[in-house]
Amino acid sequence: MKTRSWGFLVGGLLVALLLAGVVSNFASAHPDGLDSSLREGCTFDADDNITGGSCPAQQEKEHEVGGPLADYGVAGVDNDFLSTGLSGVIGVLLTFAVAGGGFWLVRRRAAEAADAADRERTTAGAGS
Amino acid sequence: METLAMHISNGIIDGPVAAVFAAIALAAMTVCVLRGRRDLDDRLAPMAGLVAAFIFAVQMLNFPIFTAGVSGHLLGGALAAMLVGPWVGALCVAVVLVVQALVFGDGGVAMLGLNITNMAVLGTAAAYLLIALLLRVLPRTPTGLAVTAFVSALVSVVVAAMGFVLQYQLGGTTDLGGNLAGLAGTMAGVHLLIGIGEGLITATTVVTVAKARPDLVYALRALKPAAPAPVPAVGGVR
Question: Where are the transmembrane segments (chain B) (predicted)?
Answer without folding.
Answer: 12-34, 46-66, 78-104, 116-138, 144-166
